[in-house]
Design a protein that fits this description.
Helices cover 37% and strands 17% of the residues. The radius of gyration is 23 Å and the shape is elongated. By secondary structure, the protein is an alpha/beta fold. Strand 9, helix 6 (193-206) and strand 10 (209-212) form a beta-alpha-beta unit. The protein contains 13 helices and 17 strands. Helix 3 packs across helix 4 (148-156), helix 4 (148-156) runs parallel beside helix 13 (374-385) and helix 9 packs parallel to helix 10 (318-329). A 6-stranded parallel beta sheet has the order 5-6-4-1-7-8, sandwiched between helices. A 6-stranded parallel beta sheet has the order 11-10-9-15-16-17, sandwiched between helices. Bound molecules: adenosine monophosphate. Residues 189-192, 214-215, 218, 231, 281-282, 306-307, 309-310, 312, 338-340 line the site of adenosine monophosphate (AMP). Adenosine monophosphate (AMP) binds at residues 189-192, 214-215, 218, 231, 281-282, 306-307, 309-310, 312, 338-340.
Amino acid sequence: MIHFSQLNIFNKRVLIRLDLNVPIKNNIIQSHARILAALPTIKIALKKNAKVIIMSHLGRPKIEQFNPELSLFPIYQFLKKILKNNTVYFCKDYLNGVHINNGELLVLENVRFNIGEKENKSTLAKKYANLCDIFVMDAFGAAHRIEASTYGVMEFSPISCAGPLLISEIKAITQALKNPNRPMVAVIGGAKISTKFNILNSLVNIADKIIVGGGIANTFIAINNNIGKSLHEPKFIQQAKILTKKNNILIPVDSRVGTYFDNNTPAKIKKINEINNDEEIMDFGDQTIKNMVLILNSAKTILWNGPVGVFEFQNFREGTKILAKTIAKSNAFSIAGGGDTLAVIEMFSIKHKISYISTGGGAFLQFIEKNTLPTIEMLKKITMHKNI
Ligand code: AMP
């Protein structure tokens, strides 16, 4: 795999695929985290006097056409403000070629407005490739996607390489997974039950202890208990049962339950065998929190994805709050990733106390599960084919 830093990019048209998929409401960017993570790569390319073109997806347009709510224009405006010493342009119609000078930055409109992007159509991939001399894959958050701007483009561009952010993400996650300092503890919470069960299958063999929360924990509790209206996935109960045989998964012994899914619902702490049909598990109970803290305090490596309860509701925040604060206090190497995990980190202001925060959600999880990603494999394959 060629690294960006190995290439001479002076005077070259450098097309960088970034993950600038940030939350935007009424044209106002709600979190700049992904843009800031992408910024060093842009700055290096500008400093080396390349002709820098960046592209990204934003949101999920229902049809492949312009939608003002999902335009990258606010991101362009933000970059223009930050990169005061460089000329920064924005371009909506770029598929038939663009003009740009050395040391300038061109921000392309949302790639998901282009027909064939999601389906990885080669006609579109060729058009992206024609825009550049060098393609840089630096969108870790989209590195699990086989799409024209992340994957197909590499088949046609003269040279493709891995960008600095992609490389640092791979390094950090690999460090956490291969030869981790032990004990290694993984925390898997949240609501995306089916994706996360696949990860548990890998993690039971890697981690010394696993703490499950959210809908995943509920599916484990449901093996032997009535869980009322709780979020869970019945088709995974059997798999949960098999996973418990390893004896390294912390299953809650008590829970905070409510009778309706609302911010004002009062929380009641109940043992897991006392839950009624009209109740819903929305957080850990106090004994489970104590058990969780004991395990976290013994860890030398912590891998964290997902809240352990409905942290958006004040009465069901305790488990996630203690989880976040315990990880923040820990001396273990901690690595966190996934959309809502970042929201939790922001809520409790612990960003600087986590050793590594991944910009990837789905990509972070898939990398943990498979130890590679499709675009990484592509970067390796083309290096071999082109014999570079
Ligand atoms: P994920 O994207 O998979 O990390 O899921 C995050 C979401 O899971 C958050 O919005 C939480 O409110 C939600 N969540 C966590 N625990 C529960 C629970 N016990 N019941 C319902 N939703 C939950």
